[in-house]
Amino acid sequence: MPAIPADTFVALGGILSTIGGPSAQGVFLATWICNVGSALAMYRLAYRHGGAVVGTRIGQFVLRPHQLERMARFYARFGPPAIFLTRFLPGLRAVVPVFAGITRQRWWAVAIPVAVASAIWHAGLVGIGVWAGRNLALLESLLGRVQGVLGVLAGVLVVLIGVWWWRSRHPPADGGE
Q: pLDDT under 70 in the chain at which residues?
C-alpha cells in the first residue's frame, strides 16, 4: 500500500462528516490535538537527546556542526514566525519542531506557533473535506487536471531542496554565511 499523507485522512474526515460520519468539529479537535501533541513530543525528545544524536557519525552526515550553528542563528532571528510559517509546508512541518529542539529553542516559542498554525491548517483541511463532500462531482473533474501540475511542482521542490542540502554541507571558504 503506498504511503498516504495524514492530511488526506483529515480531509476525508471532513467528507465523512457530510454523510453522517463524525462531526467536523470532532475531526478537527482529534487531529489538531494529536498533531500538536506529537510535534511537541518530538520537540521535547530532540531538546533532550538531539545533541547526542547530532554528535554521532550518522547525525553529522545529516547535519554538520556549521549547519547546526546556522540553524541556531536562523531560529534566534526568525524563531516563532518561521516555525509558524513552516507548519503550512508538508515535509518541513514534521522536522521543524525537531530542529527547534536540537537548537534548544524555548518551549513557548515553539508551542504557540505550532498550535496556532496547526489549528489553522487542520480547520482548513476539515473545511476542504466538508466542501468536497458537498461537491463530489465538481471535485472529480478538477482532480484530473490538477494532478499533473502538482507532480511537476513537487519534483522541482525536491530537486531544489536536494541542491540546497548538498551545497550547504560544505562550510563557506571565507568563514561568512
A: 1-4, 172, 174-177
**H-state helical runs in the chain:** 6-17, 24-54, 57-62, 65-86, 92-102, 107-134, 136-168
Kindly report the pTM of this predicted structure: 0.71
Distance from the first to the final alpha carbon of the chain: 43
Q: How many residues in total does the chain contain?
A: 177
pLDDT for res 54: 74
CB count in 10 Å sphere of residue 114: 24
| 108 Cβ contact list (under 8 Å, min separation 6) | none
Question: 97-117: per-residue pLDDT in tens?
Answer: 998 998 899 999 999 999 999
Ramachandran sector of residue 20 (left: φ over 0; alpha: ψ -120 to 50; beta: rest): left
Find out whether 50 and 102 touch, Cβ atoms under 8 Å: yes
